[in-house]
């Protein structure tokens, strides 16, 4: 091999793409592997694409492509590469589940052949298998790298999903505010504008936890600086927000403006922190600031330097309540091939004996899909360091790779105000969720174009039930803060956002549990109902944990939608969360939807904690009381969980938290601590217990907590079999029990 | 924290809540968060009925930190109901209604601190201070309005005068228009009459011209026929009516490059792909190619001379374009043109020649008719223009009279006045009741940010906002527009220009015209009553 390579002429493998040239100094390094999944009905994963959640046979077209790209106005129902690349693929059938992680950061293509697709199966295969067509094949092809494959085997999807996060990491517990509502725009133009938007939320009694600043806040796109004309008092601006429990999130992109006198550029030039071109000189590309270079986050020295930029004194105006948005980290290079970096650029490689010449560096082609991951991990380090490890950072990233979940939340990039993009947000986020990234959402309202009232309403309603909930918009579009719509629309948006806040502690608990078990927060139905074959291709509804089923309305002008209720065999009951009306699971049913209705169901057998007192921001609700919604299964039982801590520090690591199990059976409802060594001095209490689906109501109820017994008042609503316990006033800081007598 | 400690905390909390059901801050006892006007709806001696009538609950359930009424009316003083309203008296300053969600949330919303009663130390009472500030501000505004009002009254007087003048001007213009219209009609009649005579006289010339032209055309045609057939015969050596390749090959004149032989290329030049040419084909295809060569052969064709001829022709044609009715007399410009040669004999100066050419063509009588008709035309055009000008003035004045210059015409004299405002990048210009523009300091085109549209203040305060609409369209967006907030000031000027929404500009504009102290006092009073 080495011999034949020497015989090749230099540049023999080089290629041209449009006006770009790729020198390919190492020649052909491509690798490929075929993997068969017997007994699989479908395969899933390999995000990020806009196609369905279940993957399709590709023989009649292009394979699924994994190559992180800043695609302008990306297409729907497509296998084209967009911002993220996670090379993990799962198979599932009634017999078993499996998964393959193709550990490779180079450009990768995946072909899929599903034998159930009659059109692509040769008669020979039919002959050999005797007509049995339950099988899917996949072929991974990468431009470079070694074959480094992990295989996961399990009885059911959760087994393999868990193995993947065991390998690549689960998302750590995010700060609680980050699960609340975010308000963004390119751009809030100056301090008075930020103030007005902040006040607007209060004036219209709509909660919001973070205001975002896009690139225009900087001094001419120089990150870690402020435009002093428009933002002369950043610290004061941040203080105004934090006084109401809100945060500021500012953007920091990986491209660095090449401008004399800009400290980052000067340091990076001097210390050699930039990615190099094929000749070893600092690579220059074009991005927002104009001529730019790119920090080489593969170099530990660069990460160290970069992380230090986040020190409060290095980035004046910031505080623990300023969090970070890492955009353009595919990386986006406006004048590069496919709007990214040339593949023959050079990255740092840890020196090793005997590796010199071209072996002394990585080419960009080898590590491309991992660039963004290195970027966010540097940001993460910097944000932890800036508070000496006290506060949890929140980061949003656009570029995605395996492991991204350990550092950042992800949004689905620059979508448009069209129904199709709202619809795509669900399969895109489920696909990311099973691939480790539960903290996912789409730009509510759509980034490009302007959403009219109905689309905006539906998007808020959908976004309220997706993990990352942020409205964002393009600089050239009409302003669209919730109160700029007609009063009725504003009221519906308020209702949608309040729905999110009421469930905030439920979301927070789900993310805590994810940090422990690594399972998706936003789940495909087949994860919980793996034997139900109809669920295998459902990707317009999903589960939150194993408790809520969400089918957002994502179609214009509809008055009813089809909702699939799984669990018929196990006699599952689903309760409409608005009416507590019980629906026994029986596959598809029609649900009437007016413009205010979002079909959400709570599974019988589950308990969901809510906070009905929705305030301006999550932090202000910390000590508010809970309403516990108990949805009974056919045995009149239910259970749930609740996680409580301070919402922002790492103190939970040293047992300053409450992780409680809540159980209900006809005789007694119990609130007990799963981890008895952990505690948290919450002032929250139980203001209401709602028991849905109660057939034989108890005559009396008594709270016992701390050795005291208090009789409780109850009201029975006969119309929908709901029993409400009025003000039990039990403290959530210690265990309690409610005993019922009949 | 250990269990007993938080328990104590909880008890204190509950205690606080209970003791605060009835607050005794003012003379009339009323539950916390209830305004004086609603106090009578909460009677401690009776059960409480939700405002929406949905249910009746024991009075002890009012402000017990649990929401019993759908409308939130049972919890005016707690955060228990999502849609409740909390009232703070704010003694010393203005009272306030805040959403229940802001009660006990750790943020001081009422200046009297009553919204954060769970943690009384957190929010000191600042009403006295704020009230004082607010009153001082109000006083300042009142003074400003008072001072400005004097100027405003002057503006009103001037405005009314201006309008009156405009009305007078308008009626004068209406009269002028009538007169001008009359003159225009007279001139039109005269013009028609004289043009008819002129036309009649010129017809004679036109007929003669046409005859001459036809004659000449016929002569030329015959001349051409003759020449073509002569030449055809000259080469058609066997007189069979066809020119063959062989016949052409012997004709010297076909030897374009004069190399002594007619080669394939030259044959192809004249004959195309044909083997032979009959008379008609010769005439249409070969003749135009052959003629110049023949002329050269005969020594008739000298390139230099030809150019001169062409030039002269052009000059003549240009000249004739400007003079209707006598055109094309000399357009051929050849040596045998009589008129041309006559002219060159009479006039040795060429320029002079062109100027005097026109009268030369007609007899005196005709020329006189032409002159008279031209004068009538000119006078009609003038009369017509006068009418148009008057009409345009009338329209302008009418438009101005229709414009809304405020209740008392206080803005009338500001119409057309232009004010500028500069920021870092742009110079903005507001021409009142006309338009708003923006110009980059780095040069470039002036961009229209809107033309005068209408007064767009809220009801009861219509004259507080001006709207300029339909400016230049934004890329991928709407047409630019500008809202101008009008406030009282002793000067007339712009105090800021911003673009709060993409392509929607906001101008802060102060002027004494807005200093109406009577409405100002009224508004202040209303505000205080709230």
Automatic annotation (TrEMBL), chain A:
Subcellular location: Endoplasmic reticulum
GO biological process terms held by the UniProt record: carbohydrate metabolic process; N-glycan processing
Pathway assignment: Glycan metabolism; N-glycan metabolism
The Glycosyl hydrolase family 31 C-terminal domain, residue ranges: 518-608
A UniProt-annotated Pfam family: Glyco_hydro_31_2nd
Residues covered by the Glycoside hydrolase family 31 N-terminal domain: 17-111
Name this polypeptide is given: Glucosidase II subunit alpha
TrEMBL record, chain B:
Signal peptide (residue range): 1-24
Segments of this protein annotated with the region Disordered: 213-233, 307-362
Keyword Signal: yes
Domain EF-hand: 252-277
Entry GO CC: glucosidase II complex
Compositionally biased intervals (Basic and acidic residues): 213-229, 352-362
One GO process term, biological-process aspect: N-glycan processing
Segments forming domain MRH: 416-517
Record key words, sorted: Calcium, Coiled coil, Disulfide bond, Endoplasmic reticulum, Signal
Disulfide bond is among the record's keywords: yes
Top-level taxon of the source organism: Eukaryota
Coiled coil stretches, renumbered: 366-400
Comp. bias intervals (Acidic residues): 307-322, 333-351
One MF annotation (Gene Ontology) recorded for this entry: calcium ion binding
Name of one Pfam family that matches: PRKCSH_1
PANTHER family found in the cross-reference section: GLUCOSIDASE 2 SUBUNIT BETA, N-LINKED OLIGOSACCHARIDE PROCESSING
The protein's name: Glucosidase 2 subunit beta
Protein's organism: Euphydryas editha (Edith's checkerspot)
Biological classification of the source: Eukaryota, Metazoa, Ecdysozoa, Arthropoda, Hexapoda
């Amino acid at each position: 091999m080495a011999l034949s390579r020497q015989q090749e002429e230099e540049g023999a493998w080089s290629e041209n793409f449009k006006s770009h040239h790729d020198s390919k100094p190492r020649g052909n390094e491509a690798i490929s592997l075929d993997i068969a999944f017997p007994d699989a009905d479908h395969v899933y994963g390999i995000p990020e694409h806009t196609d369905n959640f279940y993957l399709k046979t590709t023989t009649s077209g292009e394979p699924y492509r994994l190559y992180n790209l800043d695609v302008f106005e990306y297409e729907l129902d497509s296998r084209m590469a967009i911002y993220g690349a996670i090379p993990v693929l799962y198979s599932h059938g009634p017999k078993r589940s499996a998964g393959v992680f193709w550990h490779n950061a180079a450009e990768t293509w995946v072909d899929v052949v599903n034998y159930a697709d009659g059109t692509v199966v040769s008669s020979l295969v039919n002959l050999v298998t005797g007509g049995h067509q339950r099988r899917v094949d996949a072929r991974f092809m990468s431009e470079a790298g070694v074959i480094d494959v992990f295989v996961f085997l399990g009885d059911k999807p959760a087994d393999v999903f868990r193995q993947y996060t065991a390998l690549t990491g689960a998302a750590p517990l995010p700060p609680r505010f980050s699960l609340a509502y975010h308000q963004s725009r390119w751009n809030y133009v100056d301090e008075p504008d930020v103030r007005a938007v902040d006040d607007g939320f209060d004036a219209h009694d709509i909660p919001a936890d973070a205001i975002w600043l896009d690139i225009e806040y900087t001094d001419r796109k120089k990150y870690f600086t402020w435009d002093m004309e428009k933002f002369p008092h950043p610290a004061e601006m941040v203080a105004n927000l934090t006084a109401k429990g809100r945060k500021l999130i500012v953007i920091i992109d990986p491209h660095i403006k090449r401008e004399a006198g800009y400290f980052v550029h000067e340091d990076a030039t001097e210390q050699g922190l930039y990615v190099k071109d094929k000749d070893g000189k600092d690579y220059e590309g074009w991005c927002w600031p104009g001529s730019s270079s790119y920090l080489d986050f593969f170099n530990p020295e660069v990460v160290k330097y970069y992380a230090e930029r986040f020190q409060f004194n290095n980035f004046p105006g910031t505080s623990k309540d300023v969090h970070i948005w890492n955009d353009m980290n595919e990386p986006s290079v406006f004048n590069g091939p496919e709007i990214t970096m040339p593949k023959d650029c050079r990255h740092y490689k840890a020196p090793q004996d005997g590796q010199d010449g071209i072996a002394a560096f990585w080419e960009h082609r080898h590590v491309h899909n991992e660039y963004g991951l290195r970027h966010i991990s540097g940001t993460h380090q910097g944000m932890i360091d800036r508070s000496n490890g006290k506060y949890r950072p929140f980061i949003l990233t656009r570029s995605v790779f395996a492991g991204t979940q350990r550092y950042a939340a992800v949004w689905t990039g620059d979508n448009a105000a069209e129904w199709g993009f709202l619809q795509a947000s669900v399969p895109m986020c489920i696909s990311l969720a099973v691939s480790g990234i539960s903290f996912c959402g789409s730009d509510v309202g759509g980034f490009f174009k302007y959403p009219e009232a109905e689309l905006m309403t539906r998007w808020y309603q959908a976004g309220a039930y997706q993990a990352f909930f942020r409205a964002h918009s393009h600089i050239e579009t009409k302003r669209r803060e919730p109160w700029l719509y007609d009063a009725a629309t504003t009221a519906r948006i308020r209702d949608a956002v309040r729905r999110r806040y009421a469930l905030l502690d439920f979301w927070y608990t789900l993310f805590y549990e994810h940090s422990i078990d690594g399972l998706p927060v936003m789940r495909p139905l087949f994860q919980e109902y793996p034997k139900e074959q109809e669920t295998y291709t459902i990707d317009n509804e999903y589960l939150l944990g194993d408790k809520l089923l969400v089918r957002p309305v994502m179609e214009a002008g509809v008055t009813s939608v089809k909702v699939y209720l799984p669990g018929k065999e196990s006699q599952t009951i689903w309760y409409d969360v608005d009416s507590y009306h019980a629906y026994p699971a029986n596959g598809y049913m029609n649900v009437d939807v007016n413009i205010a209705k979002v079909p959400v169901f709570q599974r019988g057998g589950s308990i969901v904690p809510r906070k009905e007192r929705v305030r301006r921001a999550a932090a202000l609700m910390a000590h508010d009381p809970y309403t516990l919604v108990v949805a009974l299964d056919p045995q009149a039982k239910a259970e749930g969980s609740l996680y409580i801590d301070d919402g922002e520090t790492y103190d939970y690591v040293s047992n300053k938290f409450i992780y409680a199990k809540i159980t209900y059976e006809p005789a007694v409802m119990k609130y007990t601590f799963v981890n008895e060594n952990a505690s948290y001095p919450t002032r929250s209490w139980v203001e209401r217990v709602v028991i849905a689906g109660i057939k034989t109501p108890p005559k009396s109820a008594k709270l016992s907590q701390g050795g005291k017994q208090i009789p409780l008042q109850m009201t029975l609503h006969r119309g929908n079999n709901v029993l409400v316990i009025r003000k039990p006033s039990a403290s959530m800081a210690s265990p309690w029990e409610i005993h019922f007598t009949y | 924290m250990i269990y007993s400690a938080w328990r104590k905390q909880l008890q204190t909390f509950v205690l606080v809540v209970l003791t605060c059901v009835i607050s005794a801050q003012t003379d009339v006892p009323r539950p916390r968060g209830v305004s004086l006007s609603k106090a009578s709806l909460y009677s401690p001696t009776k059960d409480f009925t939700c405002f929406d009538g949905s249910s009746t609950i024991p009075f002890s359930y009012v402000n017990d930190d649990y929401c019993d009424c759908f409308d939130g009316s049972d919890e005016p003083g707690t955060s228990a109901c999502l849609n409740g309203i909390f009232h703070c008296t704010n003694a010393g300053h203005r009272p306030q209604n805040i959403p229940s969600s802001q009660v006990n949330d750790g943020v001081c919303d009422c200046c009297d601190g009553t919204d954060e009663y769970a943690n009384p130390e957190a929010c000191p009472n600042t009403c006295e201070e704020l009230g004082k500030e607010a009153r001082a501000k109000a006083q300042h505004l009142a003074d400003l309005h008072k001072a400005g009002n004097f100027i405003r009254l002057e503006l009103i007087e001037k405005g009314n005068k201006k309008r009156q003048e405009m009305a007078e001007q308008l009626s004068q213009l209406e009269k002028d228009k009538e007169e001008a219209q009359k003159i225009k009609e007279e001139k039109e009649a005269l013009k028609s009459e004289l043009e008819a005579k002129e036309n009649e006289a010129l017809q004679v010339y036109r007929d003669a011209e046409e005859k001459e032209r036809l004659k000449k055309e016929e002569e030329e045609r015959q001349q051409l026929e003759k020449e073509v057939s002569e030449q055809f015969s000259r080469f058609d050596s066997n007189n069979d009516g066809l020119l063959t390749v062989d016949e052409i090959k012997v004709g010297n004149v076909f030897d374009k490059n004069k190399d002594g032989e007619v080669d394939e290329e030259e044959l192809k030049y004249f004959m195309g792909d044909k083997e032979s040419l009959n008379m008609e084909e010769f005439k249409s295809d070969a003749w135009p190619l052959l003629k110049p060569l023949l002329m050269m052969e005969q020594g008739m064709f000298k390139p230099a001379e030809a150019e001169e001829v062409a030039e002269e022709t052009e000059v003549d044609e240009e000249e004739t374009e400007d003079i209707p009715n006598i055109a094309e007399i000399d357009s051929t410009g050849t040596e045998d043109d009589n008129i041309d040669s006559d002219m060159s004999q009479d006039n040795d100066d060429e320029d002079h020649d062109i100027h005097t050419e026109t009268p030369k063509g007609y007899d005196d009588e005709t020329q006189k008719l032409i002159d008279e008709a031209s004068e009538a035309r000119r006078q009609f055009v003038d009369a017509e223009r006068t009418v148009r000008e008057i009409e345009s003035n009338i329209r302008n004045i009418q438009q101005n009279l229709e414009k809304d210059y405020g209740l008392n015409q206080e803005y009338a004299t500001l119409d057309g006045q232009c004010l500028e405002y500069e920021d870092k990048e742009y110079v903005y210009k507001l021409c009142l009741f006309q338009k708003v523009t923006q110009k980059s300091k780095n040069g470039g085109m002036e961009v229209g940010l809107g033309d005068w549209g209408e007064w767009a203040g809220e009801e009861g305060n219509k004259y507080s906002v001006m709207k300029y609409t339909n400016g230049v369209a934004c890329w991928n967006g709407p047409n630019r527009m500008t809202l101008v907030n009008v406030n009282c000031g002793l000067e007339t000027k712009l105090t800021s220009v911003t673009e709060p929404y993409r392509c929607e500009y906001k101008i802060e504009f102060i002027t004494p015209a807005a200093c109406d102290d009577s409405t100002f006092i009224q508004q202040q009073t209303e505000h205080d009553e709230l």
